[in-house]
Every structure is written in structure tokens, then in C-alpha cells.
Design a protein that fits this description.
3-stranded antiparallel beta sheet; alpha+beta; 112 residues; single chain
Length: 112
């Protein structure tokens, strides 16, 4: 835990920006990082983005276009977008375009 503008915040844990918070409507996520002795708020992510990142081709194109392999500075939005949103382990398996998590099908037995 660290202090940012008098409030206690968690470091290096991205969280969604909700209505009523500063930055709502401009970005989708925020994360607090320590830069030297200061705590910095980094906002990243498109607020209009749906679950498009589940496609491997889209993920590969985004990572190539933004040069995610070179993102090393934790105080930049580029680093967090590449790490949190577009990494290979990030997307959940979804069905369709609504972003619902796919449920595992189970076999049911019929009564005789």
C-alpha cells in the first residue's frame, strides 16, 4: 500500500475505472505505480473496447503495431495495455461477440 493524493492505494494492480471516478469515459483502467519516491496514476485502455482481444490474430496485430516487446517502463500506458490487456494469458474464452464466458458442456442422463 502507498499514498496517492492522501489516499491509500494498491501498487501494480490494474482496476477498472467506474462512474464517478476521475477519468471515467476517457480510459477504461487505472493502475498506481511507484516511480522513484513518487506514486503515479497510469490510465490505459479504450473505454469503447469490447472483448475483441480474444482473437489471436487481433492480439498479434496489436502487439506488433504497438511494439509490445519493447515496453519495459511500468509508468507508461503502453506497458500496461500490452501486459494486462493484450498478453497471451489475458483474454478469457468467450462465445460469440457478447463476451460471455464459455460454459463447459456436461452430459445429462435421462431417466428410464
Amino acid at each position: 500500500m502507498a499514498k496517492f493524493q492522501g489516499k491509500s492505494v494498491r501498487l501494480n494492480k490494474p482496476s477498472r475505472i467506474t462512474k464517478g471516478q476521475a477519468g471515467f469515459g476517457r480510459k477504461k483502467f487505472k493502475v498506481f505505480v511507484k516511480s522513484g519516491s513518487k506514486v503515479k496514476k497510469v490510465m490505459f485502455g479504450d473505454p469503447n473496447m469490447r472483448i475483441k482481444k480474444s482473437s489471436p490474430a487481433r492480439r498479434k496485430s496489436f502487439r506488433a503495431r504497438h511494439k509490445c516487446a519493447t515496453a519495459k517502463d511500468r509508468t507508461t500506458a503502453k506497458y500496461w495495455a500490452c501486459k494486462d490487456l493484450w498478453s497471451a494469458s489475458s483474454p478469457k474464452k468467450t462465445t460469440g461477440t457478447k463476451g460471455r464466458v464459455a460454459k463447459k458442456k456436461t452430459k445429462t442422463r435421462r431417466k428410464k
